[in-house]
Amino acid sequence: MRIRPAAPGDAEALTDLHLDVWDEAYAGLIAEEILRGRRDQREGRIEGWRRRIEGSEEEHFLAQDDDGALVGFTAFTTTRGQADPCLPARQLLALYVRASAYGTGLGHALLTAAIGEEPAFLWVLDGNQRAVNFYRRHGFEFDGSTKDGPVGVERRMVRRQQGRSQRAS
């Protein structure tokens, strides 16, 4: 397994991975028509990923298997001048691995590549217990904040202290 920074040429493979991992992670949590609709917008999503990789303040890491196929990714940013100065500066925007890689430590490796042991925050879809359990093992806890996202209610989790991560995924 290899973890590396994303490059603009990865946009198509990353789009396909992103579509697949949403289907795997959110089946039963998100309406099927939403998941199908995402696939209908594949071409636009490829361009969107290319733009995000090339020009945003986000950083992205990809996980490749021994054959070079993408099996996971993460996206994160360091926020500047955010609305809530009580939050950590790092925000984990996404962390997904293929279901076939659940429990292998790949999620932990991607999280470490993205934010290390640093304080950070993220938003998790309400009801996504697998993700909640993963983030709790890595020192994140709910802080009571919620927001309505495009696919449902999201709850904020925050890790405030360094060094709380434990190897598990």
Automatic annotation (TrEMBL):
Q: Would I find Acyltransferase among this entry's keywords?
A: yes
* Enzyme Commission no: 2.3.1.-
- Pfam families this protein is in? Acetyltransf_7
Q: Which InterPro entries does this entry report, sorted A to Z?
A: Acyl_CoA_acyltransferase, GNAT_dom
Key words of the record:
Acyltransferase, Transferase
Annotated N-acetyltransferase domain ranges read 1-162
SUPFAM superfamilies from the UniProt entry? Acyl-CoA N-acyltransferases (Nat)
In its UniProt record, a GO molecular function of this protein is: acyltransferase activity
What protein name applies here?
GNAT family N-acetyltransferase
Natural source organism: Nesterenkonia flava
